[in-house]
Design goal:
single chain, alpha+beta, 54% helix
Length: 208
């Protein structure tokens, strides 16, 4: 009798597992990096988004990601990583790092996407960016001081090294704990990207 009850319980537990638990496969839904990239805080599971303000797909993805960030568990650390795919991308990456160093990303991130993709605003100079960020609460003097600073230059170099380690060729891309890369194409869409990320987070938790 006990054996029958135990067998029934096991079947019930298996049935309760998420439907996707065994469906996501390496090199199909996500990519396992050949050489893991060191994370900032080894006590947390790091989730990085490689993005670009000029990327329309990143703009579409941001509301979904913002909602995910608000609900993420305490053992998950989120990192934003702006890409530089061309000359016009670098000023925007610098602006992101200025906001990050000033603790203003939360106030400026979505407005930057809106300015570029909804308002069709073009930031041609550092002065254009400084004026825009000033309206969002980051003083022009502070913005200009940080924009071409050693700290921002270092972040750009470190970011470029990480992007090469992550083997990022398109955005948005998500990297989980420096080990796995997820794209919309591999996952099957923007919403599915976050589902695969959640699966990989659980995978990392189980390995700890």
């Amino acid at each position: 009798m006990f054996k029958k009850l135990f067998a029934a319980l096991c079947v019930s537990m298996l049935a309760a597992l998420p439907a996707w638990a065994e469906e996501y496969r390496a090199n199909q839904h996500y990519f396992e990096l050949p050489f893991p990239v060191k994370t900032v805080d080894e006590n947390k599971i790091e989730v990085t988004e490689a993005f670009g303000y000029l990327c329309p797909h990143c703009n579409t993805f941001e509301p979904l990601l913002s909602n995910w960030r608000e609900k993420k568990a305490d053992d998950v650390a989120f990192v934003g990583l702006p890409v530089v795919f061309g000359r016009s991308w670098e000023p925007l990456a610098r602006a992101y790092y200025v906001a990050e160093l000033s603790d203003k990303v939360e106030d400026t991130h979505q407005p930057m996407f809106d300015a570029i993709h909804l308002q069709r605003k073009r930031f041609r100079t550092a002065e254009d960016l400084a004026e825009f960020y000033a309206d969002l609460g980051l003083p022009e003097e502070k913005f200009n001081k940080l924009y071409d600073s050693f700290a921002v230059n270092m972040k750009l170099k470190q970011g470029d090294a990480k992007l090469r380690g992550y083997e990022v060729t398109g955005v948005p891309s998500m990297i989980v704990n420096g080990k796995y890369r997820v794209t919309a194409q591999s996952a099957g869409g923007h919403k599915q990207m976050l589902e695969v990320v959640d699966y990989l987070i659980e995978k990392e938790r189980a390995a700890q």
